[in-house]
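Hey, can you fold this one?
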Amino acid sequence: MKKLLLLLCMSLLVLPALALAEPVEVKPPQNKVLLSTNGRYVFGQISEFRADQFLLDTQTGRLWQIVIDKKQNQKLQPVPFIQVWGDESYIPDPMEEVEGKRKLMLLERAEKFKKLFEGEGQQKK
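Sure. Predicted structure:
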């Protein structure tokens, strides 16, 4: 009973404060793309939400992020990609290789399901 009374008192104190608070303007995300029509390297910031700034090599797909080290120096740090198999690389796999890996993964998954269902069918007999 005491907890219920305490909860009621707290809500009476908090609700008026929330009603008087000024509304916060929520901006939609700025989904920007790093793009260059005539240069190899593009420097930019993808969203306004975070202050992350990137350098993109448009020919290789390599990506660096600007970071600040312990001595407050700005440095470019390579950003690794998580490849289809889960390994990390600093250069993205070519699309032909990615598509080939995806097809192989789907075939392997289909084989596992086939064995699973065949095993269930044998258990029912």
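The two ends are 59 Å apart (CA to CA). Let me know if you want another pass with a different chain boundary.
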